[in-house]
Amino acid sequence: MPQNSLLHIVTERNWMASELKNNSLGIDVIHSYGLDMPDSKKDDLWWITQGWANKALSSGFDLTLQAPGPKWLSNIDKQFSRRNVETLQVQELSSSSSLSRSNKLFWKFAEAKIDSFPAEPRYIEDVIDFCRKNSIPDESYLQVSEILDIHKEYRFFIKNSLIQGCSWYSTYEKGNQEIYYDNTDYIPKELDTVTSYVALIAPQLPSPSGYVLDVASLRSGGFAVLEANPAWCAAWYGANIDGVLKTIEASTKYHPEWTYKPDAYLVKKYSQMRPLKLASSK
Asked: Residue 92 has what pLDDT?
């Protein structure tokens, strides 16, 4: 970790900035609300929402960000994902012959977060209809997979294939009702086991320098990799703050293979908004 590092956090949630400020790494944290572009230097670190990152990029600002990319999950070995996963563009939906038309599958946009399209089981025709009605660009990526019977979900902050921090953030009770726990003092009995599992598989996964890995325990036994996301926009759910910051630092360094490329939907959405201006130019 560089000496005297500076991190910009752009969020409306004051408590998130307060938690990041409470670190022992000597990192100074500057909080802003995203109304303009903070005055920054090339080596500064960032924690920003995906939406604000795309607004800044669409405004012409240069942010150095790493991301696993839309096809990461479908490219890893099935022994880790524990299910069939396919990543495809909107324009491929109607012509795909590998997707069931009669059964629900688990659908999500591979990288874009769209509030009106939460990750959940759907029929493919409903997905096609949503994309048509909402003018989703043909080049946007969706991810579809078989449905897992999940018990608990965990998030791991990974830097250079090593675990820096982890947290348990949800449990699925009977009927698939999702329950979140704010009590970070509660530690699931299987946490040591899932941590050992992730420590074993992380070096085997192709990955950015810093990212977050979401892993589920299954009711049938064992664990499954759910997805990987950029660390610079990931919630930490009570994970060790120093470990979170070390991972963020790694995720905001240039890497030619893992450079963040916004989804076509996000490019379209944020290019139509008023561009950000430098805070110092107000």
From this structure: 96
